[in-house]
Sequence to fold (514 residues):
Amino acid sequence: MARIVAIANQKGGVGKTTTAVNLGASLALRGKKVLVVDMDPQGNTTSGFGINKRTAAMTMYEVLIEDVPLAEIVVPVAQVQELSVAPATIDLAGAEVELVAAVSRETRLRRALQPVADAYDFVFIDCPPSLGLLTVNALTAAQGVLVPIQCEYYALEGVSQLLRTIDMVRANLNPDLAIEGVLLTMFDGRTNLSIQVAEEVKRFFPTQVYRTVIPRNVRLSEAPSHGLPVAIYDPKSRGSEVYAELAEEVLARAGDE
Amino acid sequence: MARIVAIANQKGGVGKTTTAVNLGASLALRGKKVLVVDMDPQGNTTSGFGINKRTAAMTMYEVLIEDVPLAEIVVPVAQVQELSVAPATIDLAGAEVELVAAVSRETRLRRALQPVADAYDFVFIDCPPSLGLLTVNALTAAQGVLVPIQCEYYALEGVSQLLRTIDMVRANLNPDLAIEGVLLTMFDGRTNLSIQVAEEVKRFFPTQVYRTVIPRNVRLSEAPSHGLPVAIYDPKSRGSEVYAELAEEVLARAGDE
Ligand SMILES: Nc1ncnc2c1ncn2[C@@H]1O[C@H](COP(=O)(O)OP(=O)(O)OP(=O)(O)O)[C@@H](O)[C@H]1O
Ligand SMILES: Nc1ncnc2c1ncn2[C@@H]1O[C@H](COP(=O)(O)OP(=O)(O)OP(=O)(O)O)[C@@H](O)[C@H]1O
Ligand SMILES: [Mg+2]
Ligand SMILES: [Mg+2]
Fold:
């Protein structure tokens, strides 16, 4: 049975997509079967893997609203064996509104994943920067939540809101939901701010912060313009190394090497 | 009559709040009367001005849902004369859901601003990273949209979605809505990526990109942890200088020096 992990934080620009793409790719390069589900209407994960949104016939919108089986929209990622993506386009923004009045609106993604999950070792769900129905669907479908936190002041503010939402989902929709881990991102050791925020996050989550800290690394922001995970775009870069380290740590936590 | 400007981009972490806080403060320091409205449930603008969200009795939630007059929630910013803020807390996230079924749900903010707008020269509205009802309210209330665009690949992707939403609002809700300007943010001249993205944005918006480009500057990310705009936190910093330059440019475009 796959480990289903939602990558969520309503604060914008903290590295959710970058983590979904690069952690997914690093685990696939280690032989794990990985599916990444794009639940953000911006579709950054979809283009981060080089998939042309204009040619994608069916996407997550059709899965959530028209009950198209997830298996029918999954696309393999050309450059990385064992890695697939369930793409999203702007149409998904419509789903957020249409779901409000729909029956069992919070469990659509969970039901869509059930028939396919066993085909994978890991399923990662990239969430949009909000706590609306798309993110609630992801939290309801997942067993764990990976929370990227940028080492910046504003990023600290949103954490308690996110935890309240996780608690609400656990109490009403998904009793198994747990924090998979907290990932410090865009860490810049030269600034006091980064160091202070990292310390504060470690105090707040004493056991859940990954040892692997993602530094600011320009290769990570260049890779998406080539439609490639950083491990393929520039395997020797710090960005590639550190997501490989994170993959090892995620495997170790899952009791698997 | 105030110039009402929404600061919007659904891509997360591009500098919307940083621009609302620092452009607002820079204009107020030049003697303009400025109101900044926080329409993001994260409340980063509210805390960026040092306002304690736990003690704020009434906020934007009460204005939009309970018709409390905006004047009753406006709070002066202690360190900058002529600068006030309409605060937001996480309660505002509830408004997004409650507005869906409400009467004239898109024009609540416009009607709330009408009685107070004449007291100011500029009103800036900080938007959340989404194109939902809170952002639509801001676009319906505004005459112009200031679009911060981070000099990163993913930030380019969302621009056409944002323009489509602006067109939709102009066609159905607010015929006067125009692009106030496009602001390049977090520019790092040492990377090709920044230079390429900036060139592309200038090609896409030949006449609307501000000459002032905001560089990456650590003082800008430190200032919020002190609850101060950068012009007060570190007036000699590059971050402070560049938002002062932007204020001059905004005034020149408004035909006013
Ligand atoms: N460690 C890093 N070093 C340098 N740049 C990074 C790093 N991580 C992410 N980025 C860049 O920062 C920007 C924000 O990251 P990303 O888009 O992954 O965040 P997000 O949380 O998914 O944003 P959103 O909230 O809009 O979905 C992107 O342009 C990305 O390329
Ligand atoms: N020019 C800059 N140089 C360095 N850091 C910056 C700059 N502009 C913004 N920041 C920092 O980058 C982060 C993102 O900026 P900000 O929060 O203003 O973006 P936003 O678009 O309002 O995000 P959201 O989409 O979550 O509302 C913040 O931590 C901020 O302090
Ligand atoms: Mg993203
Ligand atoms: Mg913001």
In short: Chain B has twelve helices and seven strands.
